[in-house]
Structure formats: structure tokens, C-alpha cells
């Protein structure tokens, strides 16, 4: 993966920069020793690594502002970081960069049940936001599988989704406001505990901007009362195609499940070996989750079952208890981990129109044969967000390159059928150079001009999202 | 100034904007003359119409910006689907004609009571094409439900009132219509109780899809709580809600009142109307201010979104002099500035010719960002200039 040439002037001034940072941060919050900066050399896209010049861990918005003023003055690139679980290399540093981690900023600032909002510092983990409102039977809806680790900061930057976003939406639909520090150190507040701000929807463009517009330090989030209960139905089919049609039929019938998850044979087999969830032998498995009271759940499960039965499933299991639900979800939830046990893999994230599902699965199978790499598919079928996992051997020469080439073909396929490169993981460095497959240069130009407004010197996470050639003039000033 | 321009396709639209020599007033159906409107060449999207694709099984529809909302709703209804964000039709309230268009709805981010449950127009807009102030045709987003490829300019364009670009095509997420709905009216005796009652309803797990108030002609307040879904489920949830809410007052079931809540048709005779969005419990502060300012002259009020959306209206007796009406306007915007949110003037026979801020003024830092963003999208400043001020 190509990264820009480091700014030698910045590297030369490292000591001066560290000294300046130490004036605004305590010693333990400034990490400049190469043995320790190594901890920040990558995020969850571990195939690419590069330790930063310095990492800082501020505890307050004011400190973030002071840090950014210093970096702005010295023209140091800054890479914001939450928990480092990005799968797109969003938090990958460059040698001349400062990693600005918000992990220490994890407090709950306000819970307001009457208005159904919570205000937190952005380093707080996703799951612990729900944890903070659990006693009043509330929850924060977006639930990425990484929710135990990932931070709200990263969720906002990537506009993350989760299994339940079919019903509840992704981060942008649940974010009401942020406090953000711009690259020159100015602190701005956008939105708040209300639905409509005045003026343009600037919050909407901050969410999903991959740490390129400002460093988010606080967030106001919508919280919801927990449903009375939730249970899944598991449906097994003998072909991907039929499973795909069944998904469309469920949606058309007006039942809106909270989640429709899809697993294909390679994934089912790996998961079954790993988690022993008791999945049947089949080509495709759907997990459809519904919510409500006992009778509402039963009613919806029956509706879904009767639709599914029209497609002759080889097995249909309605969960009748917590234990059964847990068993059905067990395999799905351990899917990434299970694949990780048997192979290195690259997880793609393209989204397609649901109607194109069978066709795309067939063509991915073809590509798998062409490249000689095994692929498993596990994804959010209700909204067409695919996660093909391409398995490769990191120790085998050329295998990663092969995998990357195949990944690019799969993503181009998603675009070709009317979809997009990434549904929830973000562009980062991973899909940066494919952006021109989805957007014209003019379309990218207008996006980059938005960054010009917030960060005219292009110091915030500059080498991400846009093809390096497209952003070059701006980055080099 | 010549007659209205009616571009017939995107390249025509692009030419019309790039060839403009002065400011343009962008129109869809022209049913929402809200904000500051300066004299300018009119450009209408009405000829850019038609549904491009509709995939019920994928819950998505793509249509040209000038497509009438009515046409979209008819198409959707045939598949038992709908625009879940319930766009308000302003024709009654504002006494305008014409057909509301998709582009207008998205450009003004128009949403109705169901917003508290499912989101706003911006949340259902998956992608769009638009022509910027230079006449360039651009696109952002797509037609799939989840998309984080590049910056989300869709949100920025939604609610930008045509000041950043002229929308030409929009991809929408649609949802299944519900089998049935039931609405409860809880007869409360104060606004404090009304807000408390809506908040209590929204704190339950019963998926309330509307929480608003409606006053009768004697000023008695009814809290409306709506539940939608499959018959059996609605019956169950309504029973649960009754048990939870009876402490707020007598409860009756109502025939569907939501068209009036959404469109405020009965407010047509009012001569001045504001739309205010704040933290729901702050609605009480807005009402307190209004009581202080209007004293025994009184005012009309409707709360929606559990209190998060406040409509304030004055009739001829309540607002007949410029001075007091101006004072109400300025005081409302000043209070909202301290609370956060917005207070916009929607219509006023009395104030519209004065040099006032129709839209809530922005905090300093946000105002600078906004101005710089506008310069990028519309360097010549020709698209609906000052509309949002
Ligand atoms: C096992 C696993 C499962 C996953 N499952 C899902 C899933 O189901 N759905 C999903 O959407 N994602 C998923 N992800 C991806 C990842 O968890 C999300 O992208 C997450 O939101 C990243 O959060 P983070 O705090 O780890 O961010 P980081 O990785 O630290 O950073 C991500 C991006 O956010 C920026 N950023 C971080 N902090 C800030 C800040 N304060 N201000 C501005 N920008 C900032 C960074 O610069 C970077 O571009 C998964 C990842 C793993 C490893």
C-alpha cells in the first residue's frame, strides 16, 4: 500500500514538537519512544503497519485543542484514533504523524431519560454506552460486532453499523450532536439534544468523514427503550439463490425484522467446527431476529416461517428460549474469529441492492475459483451489506497481493450491480484507490473541497479516503 | 427578468445554472415559500420528473427531483409501502398551490410526526444527483441501504434549501406500510402534563410512532399517542400504554388525526407561524416565554415529536402590530439560541417585509463553516441566496 513521502522537516523537528506537547500534556500522555509508539502501528487491518512519530493521549477537549494547535503550527499530520479496530486502515499512522488517541476520554457526561439522550466523551466504548443506560432499560442501538472494544469516536468517524441497523439505522441516524476540535484548535459544537439544528446539516457530513474534518471529543446520542424481548428464527436452504429470494419476500411482506443475517456454506462449516452451534448442513443459512412481547414475537416468527416455507427450507428453527437464541447466534457472532482460526483473511464490506444478491454470490464464487482463494460470505442481508471473507496465507509470497486483487474485483462488482465499495467499514487506505470506480473525479473533488473548509492545510488523516493522486496537490499544499 | 426556466433534463439544468448571469430562485412545486426570498430568475424542477426505478423487495426507489410526492405515494401504496418519514404538506398552512415535489421535500428536509420513530427525510435519502453553482452535475451516495463510501454529502444537501445545489435525482429508502394504527388521546390539564405524558409514552418499549398535542376550540389539551403495526400487536401495545398513561388523564381512542397534526391545515387563517425544534422538555420554556409576551392576547400551540417540535401561531387579534410581533420573533430566536435547536419563521403577513432573520441565526463558528461551505458549492452565490437567513 502506497503512503505519501514523509515530511522530513517534521521528522527533523520531532524533539521540538515533543517539548511543545509536554507543555500541554502530562508526561505519561506523550509517547515518543519507538518501543512504545509501536503499539499504535496499525488498526485491525493488520496487513499494513507503520509506527507514528509520536502518540498522545489527552484527557480533555482543551488538551486536544492545545495538541492540535501545536501540530497545526508545525504542520504535523495528525491521525485521530479511538480503539484501533478499523478494518479499513483508517487509523493507520504515517512515520511523520502524531496519533491522537481519545481512549482516556471515556466519561458519561449526561444521561437524560426524559429526552432519551446520552452525552458521552468520544473515547467511550460502544457497548459501555448501552451499559450506562441499562439500569433504566434503555440502550444505544448501533451495535457493531466490535462493540466491546470500538469507541464512539471511531463509530462516528466511520458511520458504523451493526446487525440491528435494519430496524434502528446506523450511527448517523442515532447521532444528535458532537463537540469537535478543528485542526487549528478551534472547538465547535454541532447539534445537541434536539432533532433539528439551525442551518445546514453539518453533523451529517462530519459523521462518516473518517477523522478528516476534526477530532470529535464528545457526542450526544439518541437512546431507546429496550424491547421487551427478541428471538431469532433460523432458516436453512439448499441454495444461496433461494435464500436471497426469501430475504426479499420477508421484506416485501411488511415484517420488518431487526436483523436478517446470511451465512454461506464455507462460513457455516467453519463456524460449526469452531463454535458447535448445531447448524444444519446446507448451502445458506438465514438468521432473522424479531422483537416485542412474547405474543408479538411469536406472531412475527409465524409470519416469517410461513413465507420461508414457500421456499422449501431444509430446516426451520424458531427459537423458544434464551438458550436456543444464544445457540443460533453463537455461530454467527463467532464467524470472524472462527475464520481467523483457520486462515488469514481480508474482510470486504461492499453493499449491493438486495435483488442482486444471488447474482453477486455466484460471481464471487467464480472469482474464488479464478484466484484460487477460498471465500466465505457472512453478512447483513436485509440491507445488502456483504462481508465476503477472502482467505489467504500471509506467509506465502504473493498471496496478499492476490487477495487484494481479488478483493478489488469483488468491490468493483458491487459497484457494477448498483452498489458501493463500503457499507460500514469505511474507505480508509484499503479502498482509497478504488474510489474512482464509484465516483467521477468531479464527485471526489467536491468531497475534497469539504475537507478544504475544515482543514485547509490537509493535516488531518490526509492520506485516507481519496486516491493519493487525486489529493496530492492539496496534501503538498 | 424573463419567465421561469424549466430544464427538461440534467444537462439542460446544468446549462441553465452555468449560464445564469444573476441569482436564481429554485422551485419544486413552489408550495413552501419559507425563508428569505429575494427577487431572482426562477428555475423550476417540475419538468425533471418520473420514477426511474422502484424495487419493493429492496425497499428502494429512485426518482427525478421534480416528481410529485403524490405520484410517488400512489406508486408505493400499490405495493403496500410508504414514505415512512411522513413528509408534511405545507399547502394548507401556507395557502399555496402546486404539487409538492420530491426535490422540495428533500431540500427542505421535511418530515412529519413519525420522525421520532423512524427518522427524517435526510435519514431516508440514500443518494442524490445535483447541479452545483457552477453548473456541474455531481452525485453522492447511491441506491443501497448502507453506504459509507466517501463523505456523506447527501445529509448536507438534504435541508440545504437549494443553497448548495439544485437536486436533479434522489434515491430513497421506503418502508412497508403498517397494517393498522390506533391513536389514544389523553386529556391532560397542563402543558407540563402534556410533555410529561409524551415523555412517559416514549420511554416505553411499545414503539410509539407519534406523540403530539392537539387543542380543542376551548384550548383544552389532548395528547395524541400513536401505535402502528400488525393488528394483534397494536391491540397489545395500546392496552399496555393505557395502563401506563392513565395517571395523566382520561383516555379515549380517536379516529386517525395525524393528517391534521402533520399538515396543520386548520392553521391556514393564522397570520404568523413559527416552527421551533428544541430538546423536548425545553418546550415548556418556549411556552412560558410565549405566555409572558402575549399575556391575555394568547397564542396557538401544537407540540409534536414528544415536545421536540413546537408550532407557535398567532391570529389577527393575537398579532396585529409590528412591534409586538417583532418582539415575539426576536425573543423566541434569542431563547432558542441559549437552548440550542432552531426557531424559524414559517409565515407572517406582518413580518415578512421587514429585515429580520427568518431562519435561526447560527453560532459564530458554525456560521463561518457554513459560509465557507457555500463558497465551495456555489462560488458565485447565485443559488437561492440568503434563503436560510
Ligand atoms: C472483529 C471486528 C468486527 C467488526 N464489526 C463491525 C460491524 O459489525 N460494523 C461496523 O460498522 N464495523 C465493524 N468493525 C469495524 C470497526 O470496529 C469500526 O469501524 C469502529 O467504528 C472503529 O472504531 P474505533 O474506535 O476502533 O476506531 P479506530 O479504528 O481507532 O479509528 C477508525 C477511524 O476513526 C477515526 N477516528 C478515531 N477517533 C476519532 C476522533 N476522536 N475524531 C475523529 N475521528 C476519529 C480514525 O482516524 C479512523 O479513521 C469491526 C471490526 C472488527 C475488528
**Helical content class of chain A:** 25-40%
Uncertain stretches of 5 or more adjacent residues of chain B: none
How does CATH name the architecture of the largest domain in chain A?
2-Layer Sandwich
Average pLDDT rating of chain A: 95
Q: How many angstroms does the end-to-end distance of chain A come to?
A: 22 Å
The neighbouring-strand order within the major sheet of chain B is 3-4-8-6-7
> H/E order of the elements of chain B?
HEEEEHEHHHHEEHEEEHEEHEHEHEEHEH
Provide the number of structural domains of chain A. 4
- Percentage of residues in DSSP E strands of chain B: 15-25%
Question: How many separate helices of chain B?
Answer: 13
- Any idea what the radius of gyration of chain B is? 21 Å
Widest sheet: strand ordering of chain A: 15-12-14-13-17-18-16
CATH topology of the largest domain in chain A: Uridine Diphospho-n-acetylenolpyruvylglucosamine Reductase, domain 3
Q: Helix amount of chain B, in percent? A: 25-40%
Mean of all residue-level pLDDT scores of chain B? 96
Hey, roughly how much beta strand do the residues of chain A contain? 15-25%
Work out the helix count of chain A. 19
CATH architecture grouping of the largest domain in chain B: 2-Layer Sandwich
In this entry the ligands are:
flavin-adenine dinucleotide
**CATH domain class name of the largest domain in chain A:** Alpha Beta
Number of strands of chain B: 17
